[in-house]
Amino acid sequence: MPATFDDLLARARSLVHDGHRAVLGIAGSPGSGKTTLARRLVAGLNGTGAAWAAHVPMDGFHLADVELDRLGSRDRKGAPDTFDAGGYAALLRRLREEVGEPGVVYAPGFERVLEQPLAGAIPVPPAVRLVVTEGNYLLLGTGPWARVRRELDEVWFCEVPEAERVRRLVARHEEFGKDHDAAVAWTLGPDGRNARLVAATRDRADLVVPPDALPERPSRV
User: What are the phi and psi torsion angles at 188 (to 5°)?
Assistant: First the structure.
């Protein structure tokens, strides 16, 4: 099992062979460090400046608040059914199948300040051979999420102690505009329910990434 970040880089690089494009998924509960790991992997793999790897997060497939309001799901934002999981699976398949094709594939991003998805925000050029995607529900295996798993060569699961995960998540909610009480309430409420659902998928991962294998974290988690 990889014990260091360099080991993780080597394992990620080994997923690409025979000229095809691989897709690596990184799962974990909210606040577990998925985004940090994905960004550092892509930066490490692109160390020469070439666009060999790209980061395409699941969060770009959040349903917009206007649609959540229509569905009556705004207070559950972040739950599995508040994402366009079918659209996410379709993009992952396109990324796998269009390797070597001319032109850029554009993926949606997510704006944390606005808390809204942004269409066409992430370019994936033809030269990319590894797509690193991350999100809570990559291992869920029910409904359209089962199609997501089929498009991933491997899925790694980020694991951190629960107290640290909660601390990070409260800090993130405060950073993006919630007061402390609201941040705690959302972390222990909707985020807490989602975290328990995600934790139950841990055993389906190809690799569990322990905290000591993660690179040093930036301020945003």
Answer: -85, -20
Please report, for residues 15, 56, 129, the alpha-carbon distance to residue 51 in angstroms, rounded to integers and kept in the order given: 16, 13, 9
Whether the CB-CB separation of 29 and 194 falls below 8 Å is answered with yes
Burial (0-12, 13-18, 19+ Cβ within 10 Å), 119:
exposed
For residue 184, is pLDDT > 90? no
HSE of 100 in the Cβ direction (CA atoms, 13 Å)?
A: 6
Average the pLDDT over 117-146 and give the result: 94
Nearest to 220 by CA among 159, 156, 174, 153: 174
d(CA 206, CA 211): 16
List domains and CATH numbers for the chain: 5-210 (3.40.50.300)
Structure-block tokens of residue 70: 């229509």
Reference 2, options 30, 24, 35, 31; nearest CA is 24
The pTM assigned to this predicted structure is: 0.89
Locus of tokens 């396109």? 94
Residue 102 CB contacts under 8 Å (≥ 6 apart), including other chains: 126
So what's the pLDDT on residue 48? 67
Residues 207 and 115: their CA atoms lie apart, in Å, by 30
Tell whether the model's pLDDT for residue 112 goes beyond 60. Answer: yes
**What's the confidence (pLDDT) of residue 190?**
77
User: Cα–Cα distances in Å, from 127 out to 19, 21, 57, 102?
Assistant: 11, 9, 19, 10
